[in-house]
Amino acid sequence: MKEKSFSVDDDSQITIPIRNLLAIIFATGVAVMGYFDLIARISLLERQGAVTEREIELNSDFRTRWPRGELGSLPADAEQNIRLDFIYERVNAMNDDLEKLKNRASGCE
After folding, report:
1. What is the pTM (predicted TM-score) of this model?
2. Which end of the chain has fewer CB atoms surrounding its CB within 10 Å, N or C?
3. pLDDT in tens, 42-95
4. Does 21 fall in a domain?
């Protein structure tokens, strides 16, 4: 029995049905597209994680510094404080007037 030798050189020929060749090309294309989609998705999730972590740090800083007044106040807060001061003065003036009326009424009797 004579053994066949198997050798590969630049003159070697491969025969493959066109249907199988197209299937291999298609499968390779799908695999490459899937790989790049997966890499893009991982990159997006890493970026979102980094952004979320930064927002949490900033929120924590804001949460502790805002009540202490270290970050200033909003214009609406200043306006509200002015209005509250005005109401406080008006209530004090009304209390003074009420005391005067009570004193007059008690002095008349």
Report:
1. 0.47
2. N
3. 999 999 999 999 999 988 888 888 777 777 777 677 788 889 999 999 999 999
4. yes
